[in-house]
Amino acid sequence: MQSFKRSTRVAELLQQHISKIIQEMNNSEMGFVTVTGIKLTDDLLDARVYYSVLGSDEQVLNTQNILNESIPEIRHQIAVRLNLRRTPTLIFDLDTTAERATKVFELLARIKSGEEHPAESETSVTAEKTPNKSAVKPKKPSKNK
């Protein structure tokens, strides 16, 4: 039987309940929010909640503001629903992993198709003209007597 740290188990439980609490908030200014992960300290006192938002840039900003303003309410709901000695303090961080992954895939597709970005083509030309100083190392004089 594999044992897991208590902080890992509590983080999974917190993720489920925070997701439900956010869904129950029913705020039309928020985009579609997904809690992507929670990083909980070993002493269970601080929780960093990572979330992603589907929607416009305005909805992302509204969601950030609404979540940060409703931290006390969310903590209270967690305290009511879970039987923890202390309810962790919550810090909401926007998770931009999906956006970064999309940009990387777009760049890889461009490279595969042979298309170059205008700024990249200038840097590649200047890089070809400049010799690599680290490639040629001067020899040290030998100390044979």
Report on the architecture of this protein.
By secondary structure, the chain is an alpha+beta fold. It has a domain at 6-99: K homology (KH) domain (GMP Synthetase, Chain A, domain 3), CATH 3.30.300.20. Helix content is 50%, strand content 17%. It has a three-stranded mixed beta sheet.
Quick gist of this model?
The chain has 145 residues and is an alpha+beta fold. It is built from 5 helices and 3 strands.
Considering the chains and any ligands shown, give keywords for the structure.
145 residues; alpha+beta; GMP Synthetase, Chain A, domain 3; 3-stranded mixed sheet; 3 strands; 50% helix
End-to-end CA span: 67 Å
- Count up the helices: 5
Under the CATH scheme, which architecture of one domain would be assigned? 2-Layer Sandwich
Describe the global form. globular
Q: Major sheet, described briefly?
A: 3 strands, mixed
Class derived from helix and strand content: alpha+beta
Highest-level CATH class of one domain = Alpha Beta
Instruction: Identify low-pLDDT runs.
Output: 121-136
- In N-to-C order, the SSE pattern is HEEHHEHH
Helix content range: 40-55%
Oligomer status: single chain
Topology:
Layout: H1 6-24, E1 32-40, E2 46-54, H2 57-69, H3 71-81, E3 89-94, H4 97-113, H5 118-129
Parallel strand pairs: 2-3
Antiparallel strand pairs: 1-2
